[in-house]
Design goal:
- This protein is of the alpha+beta class and 108 residues long.
- It is 27% helix and 21% strand.
- The chain has one domain.
- The strands form two sheets. It has a two-stranded antiparallel ribbon.
- A hairpin with a 5-residue loop joins strand 3 and strand 4.
- The N terminus is likely disordered.
- It binds zinc ion.
Amino acid sequence: MSPPGETLADMTDPVDPFADIPSGWRAITAAMDSKLAWIAPAAEYTMVRVERGLLRVQVTPTSPEAERLLRDAEARAARTCEMCGGAGRAYMSVVGSVSTLCGDCSWD
Ligand SMILES: [Zn+2]
């Protein structure tokens, strides 16, 4: 059940909240997920998505420790290639979409 007013974009798959996360970031989200279960066992993901080449994660209920963990994962993703998990940076495609990629993957 979704609370009233929740938009479709904020709905996260309860079975696999990371379904939309690219393979290069799965190690980051998996590590974040296991730490979160330890520091905030009651927390549930309300948002897990990729927005202009950046990872965006929100949980509820949250805490300063959980926020630190999520922001750390987002910062890691911002410098990790979303395709291969190597060292990445933001690239803009010819159509203007932004992805975080390494030099090799940016040629695709
Ligand atoms: Zn790459």
